[in-house]
Amino acid sequence: MQTYGSIIPGGPTLARLLPAQARAAREPPALPHHVKKRLTVIRWYEGHGKNLSLTARHFCHSRSTLYTWLRRYQQEGLRGLEDRSRRPHRVRQPLWTELLVETVRKLRQKYPRWGKDKLVVLLWKRGFEVSVSMVGRILAYLKKKGLIRTPDLRDPCIVRRSDARPYATRKPKDYLPAAPGDLVQVDTADVRLDGSAVVYKHFSGRDFVSRWDVLDVHWRATARSAADFLTVLQERMPFPVRAIQVDGGSEFKAEFEAACQAKGLLLFVLPPRSPKLNGRVERAQRTHKEEFYQMLDPPDSIAELREGLKAQEICYNTVRPHQALGQRTPKEFYDSWCSERR
């Protein structure tokens, strides 16, 4: 008797059409990584005279662990080398009763804003001997089961504005400033001169690489004044500016954001409560307060203050040695950087 075909009808045809799938079906499944490692340990143990102590020292495992792996491998084969559940054999069971759980649920529904410290007092008055921590565990159990709802603690009278910005973004982690102008940090500060009740708004822009500063002062820190400072920044920086980094202040929105977009500048905004990420310009604010404003007699006008501030800017960039630049001025650093790339 002659038999044609194969056990599976059309099997050879399927194997020709699907060679990769056919090979995968014939080959045994790949072993997990941890099973391979344990099998390697057992093979080494068998090939070195079945010396358990030597194997334990060689692979830095305890003898008890190797005993466990060997016993499971001898009893179950490769299946015995797979990870097993670490769940305890005896699990602590809840000590509360269904009546207590139902009472807590009803009390929480009646007083949804009350926590475990207040609910436990009501339970004591009803004759239940229960602790505050147990009431907390019961509330967590009821929340997990979906039997009670969590009250919304937000004030409905407070309208929360969206944090979405039309142009500004978070600085990507792979954006690393390497050349002057790659990132300029900008910030504002309130300045009150000695003997004067007038508060000025000081603007500072510091280049991340060269520490080149641009300074200006305005009556108010508005988006329009920040946009004007952006123009001054580009005019006084000796190199093209490619990116600006600011905090989430309102003066760096609206017109300022639109100005950055119109000028083709990248605008990075810091996460909330993260002034350390703008550390360069934060240090600049302190420097100019100590070396300029605290040593200055109150000027007669803001124009006079701007002239003095411009002189401070020139002195800082061309005369004052900077410790982070190897006691060079920002101008000397930038000239050296340019000469190295010629």
Describe the fold and architecture.
- The protein is of the alpha/beta class and 342 residues long.
- It has 3 domains: 29-81; 98-145; 184-340, 2-Layer Sandwich (Nucleotidyltransferase, domain 5).
- It has helices spanning 11-17, 19-26, 33-47, 52-59, 63-76, 98-110, 116-125, 132-145, 223-236, 255-262, 279-291, 302-318, 330-340; strands at 184-192, 199-207, 213-218, 243-246, 266-269.
- It has a 5-stranded mixed sheet with strand order 3-2-1-4-5, sandwiched between helices.
- The radius of gyration is 36 Å and the shape is extended.
- The N and C termini lie far apart (89 Å).
- Residues 1-6 have low confidence and may be disordered.
SSE inventory with pairings:
Elements: H1 11-17, H2 19-26, H3 33-47, H4 52-59, H5 63-76, H6 98-110, H7 116-125, H8 132-145, E1 184-192, E2 199-207, E3 213-218, H9 223-236, E4 243-246, H10 255-262, E5 266-269, H11 279-291, H12 302-318, H13 330-340
Parallel strand pairs: 1-4, 4-5
Antiparallel strand pairs: 1-2, 2-3
